[in-house]
Amino acid sequence: MTIKQFIQEEVLRPRLKKSGVLLVYDPERRYRELCCEMADDKCAVVDATESSIESREQALVLLQELGKQGAILENLLIYVPAARPLTDEDRQQDPFAVYGAVGTEFPEGDGDEYQSICLKAKADYATEIRRIFANNPNPTFDVIDAVGGGAGWPTLQAHLKVESARDIIFAMLAPTPVQQKSLKAGDAWVPEIRTLLANTLGLQLKTKSKNWSPIADELWRFVLFSEFVYDLPGTLPDALSDVPCAIPEARPLIEDLCDRLRDSTVNMPLYIERAETIEADLGLLNVCGDLEDLGVRDTFPFEERSFFAQAVDALKRDNIDRLRQMLGRHKSSVWIGRGENQAPWQLLQAAACLVEACEDADRQLPDHVKTQESLIDFYTSSMREVDRLQREFEQAERDLPIKQDGVDDGVDDVILLARAAYRKLIDKVQRVFIRHLEQYGWPPSGRLANCDVFDKMVAPKLQESGRRVAVLLIDALRYELGVELVKQLADDDQVELHAAFAQLPSITLVGMASLLPGAGNELKLIRKDDQIVVALGDQMLPQVKQRMDVLRKRFGDRFAEMPLAEFVRGKGKVDGGVELFVLRSTTIDQHMESTPEMALRLIHESLKSIRVAIHKLRGLGFKEAFVVTDHGFYLNTASEAGDVCTKPQGKWINVHERFLLGDGVSDTGNFVISAGNLGIRGDFNQCAGPRVMVPYRAGEWYFHGGVSLQEAVVPVIAVRMQEPGDKCVPQAEITINYKRSAKKITTRLPVIEISAASADLFSDNATFEILVEAHDKQGNVVGEIKLGGMVNPATRTLSIKCGQTIAVTLRMDLEFEGSFTVKALNPVTLSTYSKLNLETDYTV
């Protein structure tokens, strides 16, 4: 391979394939010709040598073409005969810098210097290459190609079927099954590899063995330790001073070998296994434990502790640019292949997003506090995203592995900082919200009250004979979850999201009754033995049965209802004459009340069930579906000792520790408002509640029942079913793999590879949504993919394109051991794309 071909195929093309857009800076104009030669049907090349203006226009057109659905063009290379800008000011002056931000740039570091590239290409002639550059800093390609003359390593080349020293050494580290079999078949190649390693790396093999395995063991330790040493900014500890290390001239080759091993999907598990073993053998964790700066390369797993500490420090110092740099670099780290390593970084990513969103919302808040309407609009349009990010952060916190006693990994600081940022914002918003509540009352005038949803939205659809309508009553589906659900449903149907306003107090007993016909005029709260009883006119509604009887009495045989879970599992039948079909789910609320530590992981189960139900309803001939809820919720995770409110003076009935009904007097900690002003009819004169986000009893983690944007602003989702049509649905071949086809998992956080391949002409550029679950022999879910990367936090589904391979972490239930099946499912139909049989083999 010539040096020009090496630069094209080993340096530039892999970056193009990975990033899509590559910006090449070349003030010496050394690479112009080879860049232009890379143009083909799938790769466009823009040469800015002759005209900057015309080339900018051409680049913009091609970039737009690159992003089009079904476009043939896959890559864009822009050649600029100028020096790469080094500062932000220089980038602002560079008209092409934006393309580097979209994709990547060349050169990026010392490894991209011309001499370093030549050393990688001619690794077995490093001494001669350095002599050439010492005499001429800019030798031609012909001079470099002439180095070596044609000499090689014939026995090694014959065994391994590769030519260059670089590829020979790589094959010794990570041989294919065919290469490994050939190496084990004889030992005539051993003298050559001893000479080759001595000449290129400075490695004098100590092993006297003539077998591949011990030679590979020594080579792995030498290569990885050498990269660690050359990346270490400070002095190497004395305890490691006698460990063999590569000669300085071999550094580019060492780094190139390590990069190839880490970047390869096939070899990544092997690299992780080797690095863990070498780290333990050398005692690096203990010997280097006091070093604060370990460089920038991810050679060994213990180095992540240093990188994570630096990222946490950046978060504390509000150094967002530094934090983004650290998080961005970690996304491509080899250690995402270890499930245990992912969790802290995912928490940090979630914390960074939450803190930044809180700061943005805090800056915007003064522009939206003048009226109740403006505050509500601010919440439904943008601030509800803060709630989403807080929920995702809390999910990430609960996905953390159990920490060993006495270990300070910086995670606690991240948790405290993120929760404090959210609590500070919400307390500020809540004070404004309560001030408007006292002035304007509830629900907001001229807006959609939840108690009017049935009469205004559902009932008109039922006036048309034969039109089938479904109503999904989902307990505790707060507004931001409604937004996430709409994103999923909109792929198949026409969907509209409306903000509605919960009937107070925001508890299930009241909220579900408010969704019945006539609730806007007839719903009332009755006092009975110091308890609240809900009534619709003269009919008491103490439980689900009585609420469903209201609909049954009004619609007769046209009405049917059942739990959502039964419908999804296919256990219930729906008569063809049913025109109003109600599906009920209390999953979110029940788990939040009883097991809040598990509830956040189970929210996606409710959203998944809704999507499956909508799909089934469409097949049964239903034309409309409405997803409605009784109330939202607030996650009180930042509470501290003493974070409680003392009740105001008076005679009160306590409602879910966040709301009082009765008579009394307001004070600095509590509002007291007439019941009528809060839309409450019946036997109660006044309502009271805390002015900030605290309860009347300590230890409350899950808030509902009170008055806040999170509790009282709820989604109403109207779904108009689309006809199936004749459109072609893309098909994909999904495959699942674990650790080079291993059949046993040794950790409760195994990393699974999901790959998608095109199955027809329509799927080449298609994106597929996949649900990945582990099922036991009875079909119970015993493992789910963890959040992070391309996993949707609300649905725990994965988006993958044809040609992609994505590594995801499977979180296994702590109590489960035995055989199980990992399944890739269609999240709408729950049909199986692919499956993989595994079993547990835990050491502890």
Layout of secondary structure:
Blueprint: H1 3-19, E1 21-25, H2 32-36, E2 43-47, H3 52-66, E3 75-80, H4 88-93, H5 97-102, E4 104-106, H6 114-121, H7 126-135, H8 141-146, H9 154-160, H10 165-173, H11 177-184, H12 190-200, H13 212-231, H14 251-263, H15 268-282, H16 284-287, H17 303-316, H18 320-331, H19 339-364, H20 372-398, H21 411-440, H22 453-462, E5 469-474, H23 479-489, E6 494-501, H24 508-513, H25 519-522, E7 523-528, E8 531-536, E9 539-540, H26 544-555, E10 559-563, H27 564-569, E11 580-585, H28 587-594, H29 596-619, E12 624-628, E13 634-635, E14 650-655, E15 659-664, E16 670-674, E17 686-690, E18 702-703, H30 709-712, E19 713-720, E20 732-737, E21 744-745, E22 751-758, E23 767-775, E24 781-785, E25 797-801, E26 805-812, E27 819-825, E28 832-840
Parallel strand pairs: 1-3, 1-4, 2-3, 5-11, 5-12, 10-11, 21-28
Antiparallel strand pairs: 6-19, 7-8, 8-9, 12-19, 13-18, 14-15, 15-17, 16-17, 20-22, 22-26, 23-24, 23-25, 23-27, 24-26, 27-28
Helix pairs in contact: 6-7, 13-14, 17-18, 17-19, 18-19, 19-20, 19-21, 20-21, 20-29, 28-29
Describe the structure.
The protein is α+β, with helices and mostly antiparallel strands and 844 residues long. The protein has five domains: 3-108; 115-287, no CATH class; 303-440, no CATH class; 450-637 and 709-720, Alkaline Phosphatase, subunit A, CATH 3.40.720; 732-840, Sandwich (Immunoglobulin-like), CATH 2.60.40.10. It contains 30 helices and 28 strands. Strands 20, 21, 22, 23, 24, 25, 26, 27 and 28 form a nine-stranded mixed beta sheet that branches. α28 packs antiparallel against α29. The longest helix is centred in the middle third of the chain and has 30 residues, at 411-440. It is elongated and about 100 Å long. 42% of the residues are buried. The mean pLDDT is 89.
